[in-house]
C-alpha cells in the first residue's frame, strides 16, 4: 500500500481540522486514493507548546526541516500573505504538490504559483480559498464549453451573519458584530470582513479561475457594511427588499468589471434568502444559464473539507499519470 506523506503548515483552527478529518476518515481516503494518508510534519510558531500529536510527527518552526523530509503534499493554513507565499514556493521547487486556504496570498500570487507548479510537474489546489466548503473552483474549472459571463456572490460569512441578525432580530450593527465575535464568526479585529477585503480577495481568485485574468485592483469598488444602520435595515424591509453584501464580476465586451458592496435585493433574487454564515455564488453562463451554489462559507470542517477534496484530486491524478506506480500495482496483482 502506498503512503502519501503530508505536511501541515499551521495548526490553528483550520490546520487542526484537517488533521482531525484525516484521522477520522482514513477508510474513506483509502477507498478514494488507494493510499494511506499520513500527516508526518506540522509547522507551528511555538514547537515546544504541548499538543496532542503522535511522537512520529515532526513538529517544528522551520520550513527547511520539513522540506528535508520525504513529503509529498504540503497543505497550507497560515494567516496572511507572508510567510505562506515563500513557503509554498519552496515546497513547489522541491517537487511537492501544494494545497492552500490562504485567500489573500493566493489572490496576489496564485498565477505565479500555478506557473511554478507547471514548471516542476506538481499541482496547486486552492478550492478552500474562496467559499469554505462550496466547490465553486472545481465547478468553474469543469465548465469547458459554457462561457462564464457573470459571477455574483455572498463570499463573507461574517458580514452575512451580521446583516442577517440585524434584519431578523432588529439588532444594531455593533450588537450583531459583538454576537458574531462571541460565537467565533468574527475575529477580534474584523476589519477585513466588514470592510470587504476578504470578499475582494475571493472575488479576484474567482476572476482568475473563470476569466484567466483579474481586473485592475484600483478599479474595483470595495465598500463594506460598517455604515449600515438598523434604520437602513428597517427601511429596506418595509420596501420588501433585503440588504446583502455582494461581490460581483462580469465580462463586458472583453473588459472585467468588479465590485464588492452592499446591495438591495428583491426576494426572488437567488442570494436574497442566504442567511447566517452561509456563502452562495451564482454563475451566469451563455448556455447553462444561472447556477447557484450555497453552503457553509467558513469554519474548521467546511474549510478542511475543501482542502481534503483537493488532496484526493491531487493524489488520484498523480496515481493515474504515474507509469511507475501503475506498473508497480500491476506487478503486485500478478504476483498475488
Give the arrangement of secondary structure elements.
Elements: E1 2-9, H1 13-24, H2 26-33, E2 35-43, E3 58-60, H3 63-67, E4 73-76, H4 84-94, E5 97-100, H5 103-120, E6 124-125, H6 136-141, E7 148-154, H7 157-169, H8 173-182, H9 191-194, H10 197-211, E8 221-222, H11 230-238, E9 242-252, E10 255-265, E11 278-285, E12 289-296, H12 300-321, H13 323-335
Parallel strand pairs: 1-2, 1-4, 2-3, 4-5, 5-6, 8-10
Antiparallel strand pairs: 7-9, 7-11, 9-10, 11-12
Helix pairs in contact: 1-12, 4-5, 5-10, 7-8
Please provide a brief summary of the model.
This protein has 336 residues and is α/β, with parallel strands linked by helices. Helix content is 43%, strand content 23%. It folds into 2 domains: 2-132 and 300-335, NAD(P)-binding Rossmann-like Domain (Rossmann fold); 136-296, Dihydrodipicolinate Reductase, domain 2.
Report the radius of gyration as a whole number of Å.
21 Å
CATH architecture of the largest domain: 3-Layer(aba) Sandwich
Distance between the termini: 13 Å
How many structural units, i.e. domains?
2
**Helical amount among residues, as a percent range?**
40-55%
Could you give a short account of the major beta sheet?
A: 6 strands, parallel
Question: Which fold name is given in CATH as the topology of the largest domain?
Answer: Rossmann fold
Order of helices and strands: EHHEEHEHEHEHEHHHHEHEEEEHH
What spatial order of strands do you see in the largest sheet?
3-2-1-4-5-6
> What is the CATH homology-level superfamily of the largest domain?
NAD(P)-binding Rossmann-like Domain
Mean pLDDT: 92
Count of strand segments: 12
Domain Homoserine dehydrogenase catalytic: 135-312
Binding site for L-homoserine: 187
InterPro entries: Asp/hSer_DH_NAD-bd (IPR005106), HDH_cat (IPR001342), HDH_CS (IPR019811), HDH_short (IPR022697), NAD(P)-bd_dom_sf (IPR036291)
Pfam families: Homoserine_dh, NAD_binding_3
Amino acid at each position: 500500500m502506498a503512503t502519501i506523506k503530508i505536511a501541515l503548515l499551521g495548526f490553528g483552527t483550520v490546520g487542526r481540522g484537517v488533521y482531525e478529518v484525516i484521522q477520522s476518515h482514513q477508510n474513506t481516503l483509502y477507498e478514494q486514493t488507494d493510499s494511506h494518508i499520513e500527516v508526518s510534519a506540522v509547522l507551528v510558531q511555538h514547537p515546544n507548546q504541548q499538543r496532542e500529536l503522535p511522537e512520529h510527527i515532526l513538529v517544528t518552526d522551520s520550513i527547511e526541516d520539513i522540506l528535508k523530509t520525504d513529503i509529498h503534499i504540503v497543505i497550507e493554513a497560515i494567516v496572511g500573505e507572508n510567510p505562506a507565499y515563500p513557503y509554498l514556493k519552496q515546497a513547489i521547487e522541491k517537487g511537492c504538490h501544494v494545497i492552500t486556504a490562504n485567500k489573500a496570498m493566493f489572490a496576489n500570487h496564485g498565477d505565479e504559483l500555478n506557473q511554478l507548479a507547471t514548471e516542476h510537474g506538481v499541482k496547486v489546489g486552492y478550492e478552500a480559498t474562496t467559499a469554505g466548503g462550496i466547490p465553486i473552483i472545481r465547478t468553474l474549472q469543469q465548465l469547458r464549453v459554457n462561457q462564464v459571463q457573470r459571477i455574483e456572490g455572498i463570499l463573507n460569512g461574517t458580514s452575512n451573519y451580521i446583516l442577517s441578525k440585524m434584519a431578523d432580530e432588529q439588532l444594531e450593527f455593533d450588537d450583531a458584530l459583538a454576537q458574531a465575535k462571541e460565537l467565533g464568526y468574527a475575529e477580534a479585529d474584523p476589519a477585513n470582513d466588514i470592510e470587504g477585503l476578504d470578499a475582494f480577495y475571493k472575488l479576484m481568485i474567482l476572476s482568475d479561475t473563470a476569466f484567466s485574468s483579474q481586473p485592475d485592483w484600483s478599479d474595483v469598488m470595495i465598500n463594506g457594511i460598517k455604515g449600515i444602520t438598523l434604520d437602513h435595515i428597517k427601511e429596506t424591509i418595509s420596501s420588501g427588499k433585503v440588504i446583502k453584501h455582494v461581490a460581483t464580476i462580469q465580462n463586458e465586451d472583453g473588459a472585467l468589471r468588479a465590485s464588492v458592496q452592499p446591495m438591495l435585493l428583491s426576494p426572488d433574487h437567488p442570494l436574497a434568502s442566504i442567511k447566517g454564515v452561509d456563502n452562495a455564488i451564482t454563475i451566469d453562463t451563455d448556455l447553462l444559464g444561472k447556477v447557484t451554489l450555497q453552503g457553509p462559507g467558513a469554519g474548521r470542517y467546511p474549510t478542511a473539507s475543501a482542502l481534503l477534496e483537493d488532496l484526493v484530486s491531487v493524489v488520484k491524478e498523480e496515481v493515474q499519470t504515474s507509469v511507475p506506480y501503475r506498473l508497480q500495482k500491476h506487478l503486485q496483482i500478478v504476483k498475488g
